[in-house]
Automatic annotation (TrEMBL), chain A:
Metabolic or biological pathway: Alkaloid degradation; nicotine degradation
Name of the protein: Carbon monoxide dehydrogenase
Top-level taxonomy: Bacteria, Bacillati, Actinomycetota, Actinomycetes, Pseudonocardiales
GO terms of molecular function: 2 iron, 2 sulfur cluster binding; metal ion binding; oxidoreductase activity
Cross-referenced PROSITE patterns: 2FE2S_FER_2
Keyword presence, Iron-sulfur: yes
Pfam families, per database record: Fer2, Fer2_2
Keywords, comma-separated and alphabetical: 2Fe-2S, Iron, Iron-sulfur, Metal-binding, Oxidoreductase
TrEMBL record, chain B:
SMART domains linked: Ald_Xan_dh_C
One protein family per Pfam: MoCoBD_2
InterPro entries: Ald_Oxase/Xan_DH_a/b, Ald_Oxase/Xan_DH_a/b_sf, Ald_Oxase/xanthine_DH-like, AldOxase/xan_DH_MoCoBD1, AldOxase/xan_DH_MoCoBD2, AldOxase/xan_DH_Mopterin-bd_sf
Swiss-Prot/TrEMBL keywords: Molybdenum, Oxidoreductase
Name the UniProt record assigns to this protein: Carbon monoxide dehydrogenase
Lineage: Bacteria, Bacillati, Actinomycetota, Actinomycetes, Pseudonocardiales
GO molecular function, one term: oxidoreductase activity
Naturally occurring in which organism (per UniProt): Prauserella muralis
Length: 156, 751
């Protein structure tokens, strides 16, 4: 079937298998490989992207379901002049990443979290990111990064 | 102004936060054009004879290029410790997840369908699914071995070892099997070139070691293998070197005449990647009622899994048995047994967390038995600062340590006495939510493999620097740390320094990253190379400044040479020196093997709340002091500690790879395996102390595993402590609500 998705502002229209997952469409058809796959049970959140602005696990959405919609991945977050999004900047500043594998999903989930709750408490950040697993950081600096990106003081 | 010791954001991050890393799956290299996709058909049963494999239907499936079984493979079998490990199961399968066949298809989407059609008949054998079953020796995994016990050390104990003790406590402690679960699963991409060399893009911690393993497996010279390590999404010990799969894939790429790509699924990863820990440790501790320990005995049984790859784990546990304590008598023994489970290998700490868990639980059991505070009992037995270097009865030579100071700082910062008062108040009031305080004092060994590391430094014609390291960082931020060291030495800004690693054609010798060795050995190597290059540059600068080499100095603030005492007169920059240098004159490649093992140490305090009605444990606080000597980049150093604390706490509270009595894994998806999330961890409270070592050029110790080692027993002890007033003396990890509730119930019944 033919699927047309606006990926990071660019229209990508491809003939794909019915069962193709959005994450594979993004990685193979759209050539956006930042979005990673960390599991096969919708548990890890490494594949998190924004679908019409809302965060989804793209391993759990069929490409066909995103037909006619807009998707933003990590690559679409950086401004036209290479300006970092506040969440990207904060992840670097707060050392919110180590191996980087969870990072694209973690950053997209954080962007979505802040869209719904612009000034979250640390506890709210933890709850909001429960579906995004990281093996490297122990989450402490990820919480710092989200708090920092929200413009609040990082106390820890 | 020195940059070393200041907080520097990582150079590695720029790409990772904008485009994402380039992991094996992300490679779009032209050599991989037209690659076939690969998946392994794996055994669904723990122990069985394979009576037949029928691949005919699979071969007819859409897109199938080939299906290979053991019958096709013409390689000598690999060796896993004392036994042979077939590349694909040959006649017998010995664990759920063992590779049985390899399927190659044109499209990734065709893999699962084709693999389904490989028809394997299994004739079940009795499964050996636990240490006890293995020790019973009724069913043997390898009849030729004559036993399931694959390795024995020590065990000739002095029957009078505990004679002079007023109190002796013994307990068998399970250090449960866990899954390393790096967020990136295993993967490889392989292509044979026209030059008959195989390039393997591999998610590994050690490219050079992987080259050796793959060359050996394929029966070709190492010069015919090139390993390229792209970004690696975490390893934690489970990506050391190469697993058997890449050997099979390299063979298949040749046989099929096509490049091959392979990425396992997560569910596959949870049984097919090695697991960690899996020890059963019996501790016996004896001493006086004043808190002095006189004798300690540790009997280790290591579940090695089906193919015993890593039998150094139990002996490393023995080496570190007595921890931070000066015990007059220490006795250890170990057995490594095979079971019908996933093979065990290194996982963050690899042998040392098990030792620490055993001794730190033992100290608490002893303290509880004599009715003294566990902090006080620890303090009574610590090795004192003036005793270093300290030779332990088990053969370790500790370099430096301030064990009592570390514990005191943690108790002070944590408000230990106030917490004890609050605990007493809750107990008095009969509150259902109990407070538990857990301590762990630890020492560990880093760079313990005794090998060296390579380091090369080049001054480029434009005056920039390129360094090459045999270490293979994959999230630790070592690249930035090395750049900081070089920046200080040369006076060249970070932007003009590049650190390269991971391609065996570019860095032909190296050991790689494991055992927290990278900075102390890799860093020392690069520093040593830099020193040589700087001395050669000095001679060149002296000629240009028309002075004697002894009279020229390098101003590391400006990266410029000048005559001593005349900083504002003529100067010579790095580009000037490079222009004068002959070919290769400002390049030095060293092998640094003078570094001997170092012994980081620390103390952790964990505070938990346990709902005694439901058994639910909430980890409220961790106060941690981890001393690994001087710190190059505090940002990366703290990050390593955070990650370690998270993984350590995860083992104490949540994570376990479980098997039923038939050897079926019951936690083999990420939906079933209790991978720790952000909601289950508190903010970490870190304290700082830096006691240098004398054992390498930088004075540093390793920090990669330290916090994992301390945090597991601290959290574990906290849970037991919370329940002490209910009569609970010990319970095994992980402290899940069910376990905790059962422990409370059992104690009540016994009462
Ligand atoms: S890949 Fe794990 S949730 Fe999507
Ligand atoms: S940074 Fe490695 S998994 Fe999160």
């Amino acid at each position: 079937m033919r699927v047309t998705i606006e990926v990071n502002g660019r229209t990508v229209s491809e003939e794909v298998e019915d069962r193709m997952l959005l994450v594979h469409f993004l990685r193979e058809q759209a050539g956006m490989t930042a979005t990673n796959i960390g599991c096969d049970t919708t548990s890890c959140g490494a594949c998190t992207v924004l679908l019409d602005g809302e965060s989804v696990k793209s391993c759990t959405v069929l490409a066909a379901q995103a037909d006619g919609h807009a998707v933003t991945t990590l690559e679409g977050l950086t401004g036209p002049d290479g300006d970092l999004h506040p969440v990207q900047r904060a992840f670097r500043e707060q050392h919110g990443l180590q191996c980087g594998f969870c990072t694209p999903g973690m950053i997209m989930a954080s962007v979505s979290l802040l869209a719904h709750n612009p000034k979250p408490t640390r506890e709210e950040v933890r709850t909001g990111l429960e579906g995004n697993l990281c093996r490297c950081t122990g989450y402490h600096n990820i919480v710092n990064a989200v708090v920092d990106a929200s413009g609040q003081e990082v106390a820890q | 102004m020195s940059i070393v010791g200041t907080r520097v954001v990582r150079v590695e991050d720029g790409t990772l936060i904008t485009k994402g890393g380039t992991y094996v799956e992300d490679l779009r290299h032209e050599a991989l054009t037209g690659a076939v996709h690969a998946t392994f058909v794996r055994s669904p049963v723990a122990h069985a004879r394979i009576t037949s494999i029928d691949t005919s239907e699979a071969l007819q499936a859409p897109g199938v290029v080939a299906v290979y079984t053991a019958a096709d493979i013409d390689l000598a079998p690999g060796q896993a410790g004392p036994v042979a490990q077939p590349w694909l199961a040959d006649g017998v399968v010995r664990y759920v997840g063992e590779p049985v066949a390899l399927v190659l298809t044109e499209q990734r989407y065709q893999l699962a369908d084709a693999a389904e059609l490989v028809d394997v008949d299994y004739d079940p054998l009795e499964a050996v699914a636990s240490i006890d079953a293995a020790l019973a020796d009724e069913t043997l995994l390898f009849p030729d071995l004559g036993s399931n016990v694959a390795q024995v050390t020590g065990g000739e104990f002095d029957e009078h070892a505990f004679d002079d003790c007023e109190v002796v406590v013994t307990e068998t402690i399970v250090n449960q099997r866990v899954a390393p679960a790096p967020l990136e699963v295993r993967g490889a991409a392989l292509a044979w070139g026209e030059d008959d060399r195989l390039t393997v893009w591999l998610s590994t911690q050690n490219p050079q070691l992987a080259r050796t393993i793959i060359a050996l497996g394929l029966g070709v010279g190492e010069e015919r293998i090139r390993i390229v390590t792209p970004d690696v999404g975490g390893g934690f010990g489970a990506k050391i070197g190469s697993d058997p799969e890449p050997v099979v894939l390299g063979w298949a790429a040749r046989r099929a005449g096509r490049p091959v790509r392979w990425t396992e699924t997560r569910s596959e990863n949870l049984t097919a990647m090695t697991h960690g820990r899996a020890q059963q440790n019996t501790v016996t501790i004896g001493g006086r009622r004043d808190g002095t320990v006189l004798a300690f005995r540790l009997e280790v049984v290591q579940d090695a899994g089906a193919y015993p790859r890593t039998l150094f784990l139990p002996t490393l546990t023995e080496l570190m048995a007595s921890g931070v304590y000066h015990f007059p008598r220490v006795e250890t023994s170990s057995k490594g047994v095979v079971t019908n489970t996933t093979p065990i290998s290194a996982y963050r700490g690899a042998g040392r967390p098990e030792a620490t868990a055993a001794i730190e639980r033992a100290m608490d059991l002893f303290a509880a038995e004599i009715g003294r505070d566990p902090a006080e009992v620890r303090r009574t037995n610590f090795i004192r600062p003036e005793e270093f270097p300290y030779q332990t009865p088990t053969g370790a030579s500790y370099d430096t340590g301030e064990y009592a100071a570390a514990l005191d700082r943690v108790l002070e910062a944590g408000g230990y006495h106030q917490l004890r008062a609050e605990q007493a108040r809750r107990r008095e009031a009969g509150e259902p939510v109990a407070l538990g305080l857990g301590l762990a004092a630890y020492v560990e060994i880093t760079g313990g493999d005794g090998g060296g590391e390579s380091g090369r430094v080049d001054v480029n014609p434009d005056g920039s620097l390129t360094a090459y390291t045999g270490a293979s960082p994959h999230g630790q931020g070592l690249g930035t740390s090395l750049m900081m060291l070089l920046s200080d030495q040369f006076g060249i800004p970070l932007e003009r320094i590049t650190v390269r690693h991971g391609d065996t054609d570019e860095v032909p010798t190296g050991v790689g990253t494991f055992g927290s060795r990278s900075l102390q050995l890799g860093g020392s190597a690069v520093r040593r190379a830099a020193e040589t290059v700087i001395e050669r540059a000095r001679a060149l600068a002296a000629e240009m400044l028309e002075a004697s080499p002894d009279d020229v100095v390098l101003d590391t603030d400006r990266g410029a040479w000048h005559v001593r005492g005349a900083p504002s007169s003529a100067t010579v920059g790095w580009a000037d020196v490079a222009a004068r240098a002959g070919d290769g004159e400002l390049s030095e490649d060293v092998w640094y093997d003078e570094g001997t093992p170092t012994f980081p140490f620390g103390a952790h305090l964990a505070v938990v709340e346990v709902d005694t009605l439901t058994g639910k444990v909430v980890l409220r606080r961790i106060v941690a002091l981890d001393d690994a000597g001087p710190v190059v980049n505090p940002l990366a150093f703290e990050g390593q500690r955070h990650g370690g604390l998270g993984q350590g706490a995860a083992q104490a509270l949540l994570e376990v790879m479980s098997y039923d009595s038939d050897g079926n894994p019951t936690t083999a998806t990420l939906a079933d395996y209790s991978f720790i999330s952000a909601t289950e961890l508190p903010d970490f409270e870190l304290l700082h102390m830096a006691t240098p070592t004398t054992r390498n050029a930088l004075g540093v110790k390793g920090i990669g595993e330290a916090a994992t080692i301390g945090s597991t027993p601290a959290v574990h002890n906290a849970v037991v402590d919370a329940l002490a007033h209910l009569g609970v003396r010990h319970l095994d990890m992980p402290a899940t609500p069910l376990r905790v509730w059962q422990a409370i119930n059992d104690a009540r019944k016994a009462d």
